[in-house]
Every structure is written in structure tokens, then in C-alpha cells.
TrEMBL record, chain A:
This is Sm domain-containing protein. It comes from Musa acuminata subsp. malaccensis (Wild banana). Its main location: nucleus. Residues 11-96 form the Sm domain. GO terms for molecular function: RNA binding.
Automatic annotation (TrEMBL), chain B:
One of its GO terms (cellular component) is sno(s)RNA-containing ribonucleoprotein complex. This is Sm domain-containing protein. Component of LSM protein complexes, which are involved in RNA processing. Component of the cytoplasmic LSM1-LSM7 complex which is involved in mRNA degradation by promoting decapping and leading to accurate 5'-3' mRNA decay. The cytoplasmic LSM1-LSM7 complex regulates developmental gene expression by the decapping of specific development-related transcripts. Component of the nuclear LSM2-LSM8 complex which is involved splicing nuclear mRNAs. Keywords: Cytoplasm, mRNA processing, mRNA splicing, Nucleus, Ribonucleoprotein, RNA-binding, rRNA processing, Spliceosome, tRNA processing. It comes from Ensete ventricosum (Abyssinian banana).
Length: 97, 97
């Protein structure tokens, strides 16, 4: 019984497959985030995304006040190939409840 | 047989059956875990599944940066190369000890 259960246990990549053709949120290295529709992916997490918004976050610290100035840069790209080695996290889009 | 306590074993008694990292990975599915990334970011949630590359799928995930809760994800997939460690935890929920 235990061995049968193990053959049906899904890998994390199988769970990504459930998000195909859905909008997803991707966290990348270099403080970047993507939101777009997942068209394809592979085991390296190379991904094809459609209708993508990219958000680049940068934090500056004021020398005098030491306050953090958080800046975000946004751009939209209709079709994007993402190289997998830059991917940190993949998730369904954050729902701002 | 390991006793019924599903939490962290008292002392090392319960860990006698875990011989290899692979055994550990099979053991911890479904448990609350702490995943620390190379970048220092912390993710706490319930481990849904993982694979030999340390790719991780988690549920009810919370993201902690510098000890501060930054984001919550319903489901999260984390690419294995970013993972520094996976640790089990007694999940400390905010609403009760």
C-alpha cells in the first residue's frame, strides 16, 4: 500500500503543471518579480510567459536620514522567455484579500 | 516504533530510523517546515512535496525577510538551487501558542 501511494505522490514540478495557462507570480533573483500567464515550463524552470508585468525593486538609503527609499520600476512584455536559473519562487498570484 | 508525537522528537530518540537525507525528505512531507534560502529569506509553511533537487512545494507559506513577515502565499514552489536548508518546526501560529 505504501509503495502504491509513493508512485502517485507528485513532485513539485507536477504541481506547477496545474498552473499551466493560469496567471502566476514569479520571484526572480535581482529583486525582480513577474506576473503573467504561464504557457510553458520545463524541469529547469525555463518558462514562457504571456502578457507579463515585470517589477524591479530597488532600495536606496538616504545618507542623512537613513530612511529607505523603495523604488519600483515596471514594464509590460507581451511574450517572454524566462531562463530557469534566475527563478526563486513560483506561485499563483497574490490575492490581496 | 516512533511514538505518536508528530512534533519535533524529544531528544534524538525518534531520529534513529532516519539514516540518509533521502529518508528525511520522505519523512517530513505534510509537516510545518522552515526553508531558508541562500539569500537569507525565510519561508515557513506546510511542506506539500519535494524532490531530489530540493525543489519544494509548500502550502500556506509565509515569507520572512530579516525576521519580518513580508508576504503570504497560498501555494509556493521554490527552486531547489536557492535552498540553504529545510528544517521542521513547531509552527508558531500568531493566533495561539
Amino acid at each position: 500500500m505504501a509503495s502504491e501511494e509513493e508512485s502517485t505522490v507528485k513532485e513539485p514540478l507536477d504541481l506547477i503543471r496545474l498552473s499551466l495557462d493560469e496567471r502566476i507570480y514569479v520571484k526572480l533573483r535581482s529583486d525582480r518579480e513577474l506576473r503573467g500567464k504561464l504557457h510553458a515550463y520545463d524541469q529547469h524552470l525555463n518558462m514562457i510567459l504571456g502578457d507579463v508585468e515585470e517589477i524591479i525593486t530597488s532600495v536606496e538609503i538616504d545618507d542623512e536620514t537613513y530612511e529607505e527609499i523603495v523604488r519600483t520600476t515596471r514594464r509590460t512584455v507581451p511574450f517572454l522567455f524566462v531562463r530557469g536559473d534566475g527563478v526563486i519562487l513560483v506561485s499563483p498570484p497574490l490575492r490581496t484579500a | 516504533m516512533n511514538g505518536g508525537g508528530g512534533g519535533s522528537g524529544s531528544g534524538g530518540g525518534g531520529s534513529g530510523s532516519v539514516k540518509t537525507p533521502t529518508d528525511f525528505l520522505k519523512l517530513i512531507r505534510g509537516r510545518p517546515v522552515v526553508v531558508k534560502l541562500n539569500s537569507g529569506v525565510d519561508y515557513r509553511g506546510i511542506l506539500a512535496c519535494l524532490d531530489g533537487y530540493m525543489n519544494i512545494a509548500m502550502e500556506q507559506t509565509e515569507e520572512y525577510v530579516n525576521g519580518q513577515l513580508k508576504n503570504k502565499y497560498g501555494d509556493a514552489f521554490i527552486r531547489g538551487n536557492n535552498v540553504l536548508y529545510i528544517s521542521t518546526s513547531k509552527r508558531t501560529l500568531a493566533d495561539g501558542a
